[in-house]
Amino acid sequence: MENKSGAILFVILAMAIVLHEVRPGLAQILPHIPEIFPPGSPIDIVKCSSSLFNVQGCVQEIYNSIFSGQFANIEAACCKIFLAIDTNCWPRMFPLNPFFPPLLKNNCERIATTPSSTHK
Fold this sequence. Notes:
Shape: globular
Largest sheet: none
Mean pLDDT: 74
Number of strands: 0
Strand content: under 5%
Structural class: mainly alpha
Helix content: 55-70%
Distance between the termini: 29 Å
């Protein structure tokens, strides 16, 4: 089950990267998968998650924490970006694990407020 949800998350993130690189109008030609990709959501996923791609390694750090349950390897810069994302984006970014974003938020609040500039 864990591998299946990992593959789905990878597809979602890959689509976000692709859609970030192409014109938004092209997103409308993608098939719509009910409940995971309701009409209009691929563009919303890009808007919601695009800031995570601006911090090198942030997406990978979050991906790793989803499957390991460990948050210690998430850098403060990544946490600050995640904390700035609107909570309405979370269901679209993490459709298969609605409990993960609040856990990440709680851990990121602690990591982002540590006195040192990097967390490890």
